[in-house]
Amino acid sequence: MVAWKVIRPIKKLPNLQIHRKLTIIPIVLCVGLSGCDYLLEPIEEGPPSLPTPVETTTPEPDVTETPTVTASPEPTPDEVNPEIPSDGDTSSSEEIVPEPLPSSTPIPEPTPVPQIEAVFEYFPPGDLEPNSGYGAVDPTIYVPDMVFPIKSAPAYPQSQVYRFGGGIGGGDQCDERNFEIAWRDNFCENRTRSTTSPYCPSQGVHVGQDIRVGTPQGCMAERRLLPEERLRYEVIAAEDGYISNIGRYTVNVRAGGRIYRYMHMNMAALQVTLGQEVKAGDVLGYVSNDFGGTPTTLHLHFEIKHNTAEHGWTWAPPYTSLVKAYERREQAPGEMVEAN
What we know:
By secondary structure, this protein is α+β, with helices and mostly antiparallel strands. The protein has helices at 4-7, 16-33, 77-80, 216-223, 319-330, and strands at residues 120-122, 155-157, 209-213, 234-236, 241-246, 250-255, 258-263, 277-278, 283-286, 300-308, 312-316, 334-336.
């Protein structure tokens, strides 16, 4: 094949006509041989261009380079402890992997506080038996640390006149229903006497709390005994003090600015004498029905009398103090129930 660049120097001939004719010859040859299509491009007039030198690249020998071992520099404090990278240090070729966050320890659920079941029920203070009067709606606990006056037997504060076996309630005092009902206040209950208290809305009222004691079976057993033989249910001092008075059917314990009066105990079997010092919890006597010859039920009548600046010595509602004292004795709560 005739190269186009070899023929182009013919252009130097003075006879331009010869140049054109000679130019056709390689074109025809290339077209016939179909190998010089690029020669059909138009030829620019002007000085001939020099041949472009062809650069030859000598292939480099395939030699595997041996890695050069260089001594490692002394580690810096930041490299010794990679957990804390130096500020702005990006030259290290090792990738610093952040320390994984500690897995969150699940917070244990709080241990539920065991619920202590109520051991007794009680109506609100001042909620008396129906048709028995109007009580003192007073939630004040006048003696928050006193001891319950019955040592260990079950107790049921309630009316002894308007419940079964009472003078108005009728029926039998040992009726099981008297030992199943919730506690009920009977401070300010209607009575025929003229006693009164500034806490009661009317005069001629009951100024203590009656407490039925024991069980129906115990009630029937006590009823069959002579009064002096009744030693089943112990009565105890509510507070430290001394015996300030002993009447025909009453015993008073003086304790600072308070006087506790106990009524209807077995007076033939008292465990204290006049002037004797007593501690809270000491046995005073036993539940009975002594009332100077007047019939009454087997129960304890309990009063709190305190000395106030407004009224001097006067009776205070004992019901709420008894509720709290019984809870401490039983080491379990009571539950207030709906009033009628």
